Amino acid sequence: MSRLAPLCQYCIHYRGTDPKYGSCVCDAFPKGIPDEIYLYNYDHRLPFPNDNGIRLEPNPKYYSDENEFKKTADEFTINSIQEVYEIKKNEEERRRYSDGFDSFIDG
Questions:
Q1: What is the reported pTM?
Q2: Main-chain dihedrals φ then ψ at residue 28, nearest 5 degrees
Q3: What one-character-per-residue DSSP string does 36-80 give?
Q4: What is the mean pLDDT of residues 6-15?
Q5: What is the DSSP pairing of strand 23-26 with strand 14-18?
């Protein structure tokens, strides 16, 4: 499952990168979009802690047809936060293994 950009970037609430926080921000997360949503594709059409009730909505600039946006979101998001945490944990373990392997090769 991959796409060129996180779905956040096609949301009407997306505000871009804020240099003050060093991360992408939106109306729901003005201090930085959580990794679970931005990197790990949690479906933010669903509630997420501290989102102030603001959810993923299509920006008409990119999606004039809400059904097309829904289809894309259905295809590229994960609606189980437990599944997102499992993916995140596996990636972190792979990264640790890879870092250790690189040190062994370089050492």
A1: 0.76
A2: -75, -35
A3: HHHTT-B-TTS--TT-TT----B-TTT-S-HHHHHHHHHHH-B--
A4: 93
A5: antiparallel
